[in-house]
Task: inverse folding
């Protein structure tokens, strides 16, 4: 079964919109096409093969039963990361990243055990606590569940971390790098691409952009259980960072088409 992504798809979902040019990271210069009204525009002809390379890596990782942790604590992406994690039987952090969530995993596991103990108390028919005590336990349970609910079934640190907005989730990036966990990340024009193993230069704010990318990862992770190739025209894509082959179909959208879309004046927050 084929998973095909075109430049038209990325354009339609607003993946080309970057940040204000004053906020850019010079290391992202090689992925920038130009600017419109003070906003940088990403060159999707470079983003597309990197996206396909990341998808290939995700497919091969899932085939080996490796586990993914999806991370975004932005409110607009909260439901998106939860959905893909649940659809693919993986894990997520969508409320707050706790320092040491990866590098101090044993302590985090103790907090997960505490969460489960609170739940057991609240579900028990035994009347061992007063109403006030149960109310306090309920509040503590809710607080822990917001932070740890997406990783409560995670037995060990993940094999792959998928991050949306590496600036906001910089601690997650540092911890994954320290442990040698590969990182797939959607990186905008204000991000540093260097620490990322599988960067995807794209709009990391717009809901449509992030949702489109995550939906395609969801498809390939679920497909991996069937041990099928993603598609014949992607079989030559390298899974090594910086060694991506640009497929011929990239040329189906010309610079003139990109200019036309830019001039339509779409908003970044699509």
Result:
């Amino acid at each position: 079964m084929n998973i095909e992504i075109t430049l038209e798809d990325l354009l339609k979902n607003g993946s080309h919109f970057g940040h204000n040019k004053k906020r850019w990271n010079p290391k992202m210069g090689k992925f920038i096409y130009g600017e419109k009204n003070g906003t940088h525009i990403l060159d999707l002809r470079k983003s597309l093969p990197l996206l396909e390379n990341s998808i290939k890596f995700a497919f091969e990782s899932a085939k080996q039963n490796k586990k993914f942790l999806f991370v975004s604590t932005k409110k607009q992406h909260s439901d998106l990361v939860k959905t893909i994690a649940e659809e693919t039987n993986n894990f997520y952090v969508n409320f707050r990243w706790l320092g040491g969530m990866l590098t101090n995993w044993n302590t985090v596991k103790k907090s997960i055990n505490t969460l489960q103990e609170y739940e057991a108390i609240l579900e028990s028919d035994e009347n061992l606590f007063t109403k006030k005590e149960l109310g306090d336990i309920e509040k503590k349970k809710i607080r822990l569940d917001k932070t740890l609910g997406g990783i409560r079934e995670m037995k060990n640190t993940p094999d792959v971390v998928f991050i949306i907005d590496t600036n906001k989730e910089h601690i997650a990036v540092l911890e994954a790098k320290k442990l040698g966990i590969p990182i797939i990340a959607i990186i905008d024009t204000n991000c540093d691409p260097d620490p990322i193993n599988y960067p995807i230069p794209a709009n990391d704010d717009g809901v449509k952009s992030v949702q489109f990318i995550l939906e395609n990862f969801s498809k390939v992770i679920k497909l991996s259980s069937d041990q099928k190739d993603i598609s014949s025209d992607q079989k030559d894509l390298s899974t090594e960072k910086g060694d991506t082959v640009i497929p011929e179909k990239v040329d189906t959208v010309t610079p003139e088409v990109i200019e036309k879309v830019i001039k339509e004046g779409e908003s970044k927050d699509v």
